[in-house]
């Protein structure tokens, strides 16, 4: 077992895996593989993650609070239980107007066929 992952075959309350810390964004890896990973993160109110681009699709699900996510300059507000897929190669950022927790699932497949050059 990867020591940074949570224990396998053990029931977990996902929203409790990572706590809130003032002025911080915290993350804990649930599972990490070559083909992708699942991470739970907490954002203190007022925190943000700057705009970035990932080469992979990323499914985000809010498990506590509400988050503002910007994807390719379009803003989305997600609340408890809602999810969204951030497409591969899209610019995206996160903003915590209030504290929130999310699960991020990155799938590293399908990108083999992607090319920045037209056929």
SSE blueprint:
Elements: E1 25-33, E2 36-43, E3 48-53, E4 57-71, E5 74-79, E6 83-86, E7 91-95, E8 100-107
Antiparallel strand pairs: 1-2, 2-8, 3-7, 4-5, 4-6, 4-7, 4-8
Short description:
With about 120 residues, this protein is mostly beta strands. About 0% of the residues lie in helices and about 50% in strands. The model has no long low-confidence stretch (mean pLDDT about 90).
Give structural notes.
The protein is an all-beta fold. Helices cover 0% and strands 51% of the residues. It has a single domain, classed as Jelly Rolls (Sandwich), CATH 2.60.120. The protein is built from no helices and eight strands. Strands 1, 2, 3, 4, 5, 6, 7 and 8 form an eight-stranded antiparallel β-sheet that branches.
**Helix and strand string, N-terminal first?**
EEEEEEEE
Please state the CA-atom Rg, rounded to the nearest Å: 15 Å
Q: What would you say the CATH architecture is?
A: Sandwich
Note the total helix count. 0
User: Helix coverage percent of residues?
Assistant: under 10%
CATH superfamily placement: Jelly Rolls
In CATH, what is the class?
Answer: Mainly Beta
Total beta strand runs: 8
Overall geometry: globular
Q: What proportion strand? A: over 45%
Low-confidence stretches: none
State the separation between the terminal residues, measured CA to CA.
42 Å
Count of the separate structural domains = 1
Biggest beta-sheet profile: 8 strands, antiparallel
- The helix/strand class is mainly beta
CATH fold-type name? Jelly Rolls
